Amino acid sequence: MSQIDDERMLTAYHEAGHIAISYYFGFSVKGSKLLFKDDDPDFFTLMNSKDKWIGVTPIKYGNYMPYAKALNNIDEQAVNEYSNQEPFGLFVQKFALVMAAGWYGEILYWTECKSKRPSDVPQEMDDGPDRDVLNFIYTLDSKFKTYINTYCPIMLDLHKEQIKAIASALYEKKELNSSEIEAIISANPMTPPTEELRNL
User: Fold this and answer.
1) Domain encompassing residue 95
2) Contact between 20 and 159 (Cβ < 8 Å)
3) Long-range contacts (CB closer than 8 Å, 24 or more residues apart) made by 139-147
4) Running DSSP on this structure, what letter comes out for residue 38?
5) Is 100 exposed, middle or buried (0-12, 13-18, 19+ CB in 10 A)?
6) How many beta carbons lie within 10 A of that of residue 46, not counting itself?
7) How many angstroms separate the CA atoms of 106 and 76, rounded?
């Protein structure tokens, strides 16, 4: 693979991580696509990205969409208003894991595709929107960082095959619609949650 192809596959694994864990928690996606910088330089400038590839995966959170928008937009006022609602804390835990799953998808790429040892891969998420949102979530309660460090590796291991299948299809086609993603998930059934994860 060329360097550009490597980055394309890395981005596909990142998006596949988001997708797999979204479905694990009962969320779904509208679709996913990989954008190449030379095809849309204005978008990359808008995103302030130095990467050659960017992935876009809108996730459908159903009745929790207002919570997701508040967190994605780092809207402190809205978050404060929602914080007293009973489901909010539980949703934040799941949302944080979905956000972090992109990074853990990248770790899977390095260890599975590039045969690197876990100790040899980057130890921190790159700066960007995902990290900004997670840093905001960590300010709400430090326990969310513990959830990420504890549960994301477990989920990564449980869903390797789903992530690989989604990443491979996304790499090849550069764009998947919701039906295509659901077909991949159906062909690679999700592992039932353990009691520990079920209680998240």
Assistant:
1) 3-198
2) yes
3) 140/79, 140/83, 140/92, 141/89, 144/92, 144/93, 144/96, 147/93, 147/96, 147/97, 147/200
4) G
5) buried
6) 9
7) 29
Q: What angle do CA 134, 70, 158 make, to 5 degrees?
A: 45
Question: Residue 162 corresponds to which amino acid?
Answer: Q
- Number of domains the chain contains: 1
CB-CB contact of 24 with 193 (8 Å): yes
- Return all residues near 100 (Cβ < 8 A) that are at least 6 apart: 125, 130, 134, 148, 152
- The pLDDT tens digits for 150-196 are 888 888 888 889 999 999 999 999 999 999 999 998 898 777 666 65
Q: pLDDT of 23-60, one tens digit each?
A: 988 898 999 999 888 787 887 787 777 788 888 999 99
